[in-house]
Specification:
Strand order of the largest sheet: 1-2
Helix content: 25-40%
Number of domains: 2
Shape: elongated
InterPro entries: IPNS-like_sf
Order of helices and strands: HHHHEE
Largest sheet: 2 strands, antiparallel
Oligomer: single chain
């Protein structure tokens, strides 16, 4: 059973100290997220602005077919520069994180 949302100390202990978070509240049957854990609309990120900025930054394609050829260093450099943009928009609908792992 989810803790009472009326007692801030109990709620804080359940969510933060025990690491259950909002997901823990949902799994335990809470029906509504406590107001203190909802970000005010004025402080929320504008998704349209992010999408516009990302589209501007992602206008260059990287040809990965050249990764194992004589242009290897240039391709790795291009991937590294692209990885400086933390979030990219994939297929116009979903978010994914971009990074480089094990490229040498």
């Amino acid at each position: 059973m989810a803790p009472s949302t009326d007692d801030g100390n109990v709620l804080f202990e359940f969510m933060v100290q025990k690491g259950n978070g909002i997901k823990g509240l949902v799994y335990n049957g809470i029906k509504m997220v406590p107001e203190r854990y909802i970000q005010p609309p004025k402080e929320r990120i504008d998704k349209n602005t992010i999408i516009s900025n990302i589209d501007d930054q992602l206008s260059v394609a990287i040809d990965l077919s050249k990764l194992h050829g004589p242009e290897h260093d240039q391709v790795v450099g291009a991937i590294s520069r692209a990885a400086e943009t933390t979030w990219i928009l994939s297929s116009g609908k979903s978010w994914c994180q971009f990074g480089t792992v094990g490229i040498s």
